[in-house]
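Sat 14:20. Reprocessing the chain from the morning session after the first attempt stalled halfway. Input below, unchanged.
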Amino acid sequence: MTGTAQAATPPVAVLELPERLRLRYRKLGRVRFTSQRDLARLMERAMRRASLPLRRSSGFSPRPLVSFGLALPTGCSSRAEFLDLRLDAESSTSPGIRVIDSSAVDPAGLDRVCELLTSLLPEGIDVTAAAALHGPEMSLQEAVASCDWELEVLGVGPAEAAGRVERLLDADAVMVTRERKGREVADDLRPSILSLEVADRPARVLDGHGEVVGIDASVSTRPRGVRPGELCRALGDQVTLLGACRTHQWMENEDRTVRAEPLSEAGVACVGLPARTEVLGG
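Finished this time. Tokens:
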């Protein structure tokens, strides 16, 4: 009696992940016009499609325990966005994923999560790093103390822009009008502007609009954040914001001498003392 031998089916690799996870992602290109609320829906949908066993809140209307960092203004791009999520070790709905102790997580598994989520997200949203979290940490919105921005503006040349930046930094107060709870209020931006300068980047000309000037800004998130559009208004008339990209978000020690990213591009999370630090002024 003859028969055909059947090849054994290779076992499916189980993806081992920590209970608490921090992700770093980019938001570039046309997807920058997606609002923060819609972005949250896109992320949660991608996580469901990836079969991540998200832990959910208790109560009448449970929600996935996904915590986003500072909201990115609609129309702005970013190379440094972050979110934290919790996985459910008791879930049986994701047989290909096992939730384990964070100290035993294989970095290759974290890389696989980044690749999987990126494949399920719209073009322009790329998950670039992931790391396990250990112990209690502040939320991202509480922990991030400052942000760096690259701005592109129209309406003034480099020399005029440099003069306006210098006058802004020399001012005792920089007042702008904001809408808060349905009414307009005047706020002083000057305490939140940590640094501002015309960028040393190759010049370019936008047809019909003139020269594009780059401006680098570092702004505090406390007591209130500063939006790129507000910075441009503070620079005076004729300054039009063409584009804005958030390049860094920083956690800082109390005297602001040391800072660290919540999660570096190399996948190192900042927990407790900064894991990736930069000495200011050093």
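The first helix runs from residue 36 to 49.
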